[in-house]
Predict the 3D structure of the following.
Amino acid sequence: MKFLHTADWQLGMKAVHVAEAADQVRKARLTTVERIMELAREEDADFIIVAGDLFEDNHVHRDLVEAVVRCLSASPTDVYIIPGNHDHFGADSIYQSRLFANLPEHVHVLTERKPVELPSLNCVLFPCPVTQKFTMIDPTEWIPEEGYEGRIRIGIAHGSLEGVGSQRGSQGDNPIALGAQQKKRLDYLALGHWHSVRQCSERVFYSGTPEPTAFNERDSGNVLLVEIDGPGVLPRVRSKPTRHLTWLERSTEVHEPYDVAVASLRHDLESIANPERTLLRLHVAGSLSATGYEELHRVADALSGRFLYFELREERLLPEVLTGRLEEFARSHPVTGGVFADLRALLADAEGRGLDADAQMTATSLPELRRIAEESIPPNDEERTLGREEITAALLELARALGEVER
């Protein structure tokens, strides 16, 4: 017996985090559904399991639902769907709408907790549809531990497997007992909810989403091809790529000479395959001269149009002219030198604690600078070599510099 295990299609997702590319991202998800149907045909799959969250929510547009029904109707084999936490089966469920009233016979939305027997495959499905977005009840609790001996037992659930960790949600996010598969004597437990492929045991898998939804997903954009030769036999599970778009996150560090650094970055970006189907988030750190800084942005602007989506994030990217000016100023102003040294120490300490760039800038806020400067002001006596006007000037210079960095 052979089937495809998939979940978390999230059709209708808003994708507001990628701004102008949102519409293409939504369309790509339908393209991926078509690819899943093609893959089922290529692999001669006996059926397809969709383990929840076919839709982003229960209020997606009618046109999208009609398009999805057309895709499912074109499936070469049976499709078994359970509602997930995003499209849970309640009073206003999308699956209660008239659009799902006349599905073809081979498309099954499993909204009840009862066994589904597949005699020709010597198999029984145990669907665990989600009926509310958040619950502390294990959706697999209802599955009988006995019965259906001599048949392949497959559970279908959507939620967070306890003790494994979570990418999203909380302990109340439809928790599934770690030992559910063994307790319920399942040959395979098909899970949905997490967006990356994850093997939790030899018989328990998350398929992940077939089309990525964010930059931080480790192994999304796949479906699982599962083969089980008989009851009690370990499944053979292979990941099959289905993604249409690539979400790529890159980090780079640039320093002088700027022409070498920027040329290397240009080469790296130009070598990315299929940029028109790539969403790229580029993290840049380091220091450049004012000219280098401008050149970096010129190249980034020129290349950004190649990609479906391009986002430049400057993290601890300091114009070299800024730090150079402060160092020169500090050499001729002892108090400023002390403040500047303390500022650098604060930044180093923040980096050592693993703070992000925003937190590092916050750690050296203007009140903190003012405190450092005040502690550095010498007593008001004849030995003082610097006037308060000079100290104030130094503090203002640092404040202006900090303002430039924060922008």
Notes: The mean pLDDT is 84. The first strand starts at residue 2 and ends at 6.
